């Protein structure tokens, strides 16, 4: 549904519209998904301060990861939106999402400062 919405909002034949589509995708979708992912990683850690773990994980990891994502995803989406038919765009993105998920899982599952401090006690 996301790709259909983007296709309705932006004409892929215009290079300016194509860049706008990628920018809109990265400014609206990416920060929300990344924040939810890191919060969940922290929240799912064992301990008393699960909400605080989630908050700390977002605070520590969001900006470094989103900056790396902004180097990776615009290239992927420019290729996707420019050359891939709409009905294959989800599949195309899923292939690159697998690689990105491996990276974010590695980053997201590092211990937070709170978890490390609790282990010292």
TrEMBL record:
Topology within the bilayer: Multi-pass membrane protein
GO cellular component: cytoplasm; membrane
Pfam families in UniProt: Mpv17_PMP22
Domain of life: Eukaryota
Subcellular location: Membrane
InterPro entries recorded: Mpv17_PMP22
Residues passing through the membrane, by range: 86-108
Keywords noted in UniProt: Membrane, Transmembrane, Transmembrane helix
Principal place of residence: membrane
Similarity field: Belongs to the peroxisomal membrane protein PXMP2/4 family.
Name assigned to this protein: Mpv17-like protein
Annotated organism of origin: Opalina sp. OP10
């Amino acid at each position: 549904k996301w790709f259909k919405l983007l296709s309705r909002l932006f004409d892929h034949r215009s290079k300016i519209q194509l860049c706008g589509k990628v920018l809109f995708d990265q400014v609206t979708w990416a920060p929300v998904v990344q924040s939810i992912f890191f919060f969940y990683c922290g929240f799912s850690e064992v301990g008393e301060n699960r909400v605080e773990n989630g908050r700390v994980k977002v605070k520590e990891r969001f900006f470094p990861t989103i900056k790396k994502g902004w180097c990776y995803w615009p290239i992927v989406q420019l290729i996707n939106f420019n050359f891939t038919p709409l009905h294959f765009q989800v599949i195309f993105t899923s292939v690159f999402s697998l690689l990105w998920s491996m990276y974010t899982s590695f980053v997201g599952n590092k211990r937070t400062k709170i978890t490390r401090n609790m282990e010292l006690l």
